[in-house]
TrEMBL record:
This is Putative tRNA adenosine deaminase-associated protein. Residues 91-119 are annotated as: Disordered. InterPro entries: tRNA_Adeno_NH3ase_assoc_put (IPR023869). The lineage of its organism: Bacteria, Bacillati, Actinomycetota, Actinomycetes, Streptosporangiales.
Length: 162
């Protein structure tokens, strides 16, 4: 199972970022504590976690000093039943679309779940995020690249993916 995860935080007009290992997380608080620790170290009150797994789905988590509860968006809510990290993320708001009863063969279109408006102030609207999530042929890494470009840290994300 291949997973990429990185935390980003702005300090003025400059973004800082770090790839993170989420292999030991057990609860959502482990993730939000990590995010806020990095944001504080970088002089920011906001942190974003961008995560993608197996070129199949992605997640965005947002924490802000003014609101201790994380905001989470999953490109496909059904993954909370299949992927341990998605299950941890689902603790943030009861995410998780029901597993469809169809055969185990082809998986139907993704079912985005969570707070789709968590990136609106950074240039990605809820409708656009949803469209990107269900758009055929769009890889999760491509969606995260759009998010990073709009927010202003595309080069930083690209440098982590080399």
């Amino acid at each position: 199972m291949s997973t990429f995860a990185a935390v980003f935080a702005p300090n003025g007009k400059t973004w800082r970022g770090s790839e993170v290992d989420l292999g030991d997380v057990e609860v959502i608080d482990d993730i939000t504590d990590l995010m806020m620790d990095l944001a504080t170290d970088w002089g920011s009150e906001l942190a974003l976690l961008l995560m993608e797994a197996d070129d199949e789905w992605f997640a965005v988590v947002r924490v802000d000093e003014s609101d201790p509860d994380p905001r989470v968006y999953l490109s496909d809510g059904r993954v909370v039943h299949d992927h341990p990290l998605a299950g941890v993320l689902s603790e943030a708001g009861g995410l998780g679309a029901p597993v469809p009863a169809e055969s185990a063969g082809a998986r139907p279109d993704p079912r985005p779940d969570g707070e789709g408006d968590l990136l609106t102030d950074l240039g990605v609207t809820e409708d656009e995020l949803s469209d990107l999530s269900v758009g055929g042929g769009v890889l999760p890494s491509d969606v995260l690249a759009v998010v990073a470009e709009r927010a202003g840290f595309a080069e930083l994300l690209d440098s982590m993916r080399l």
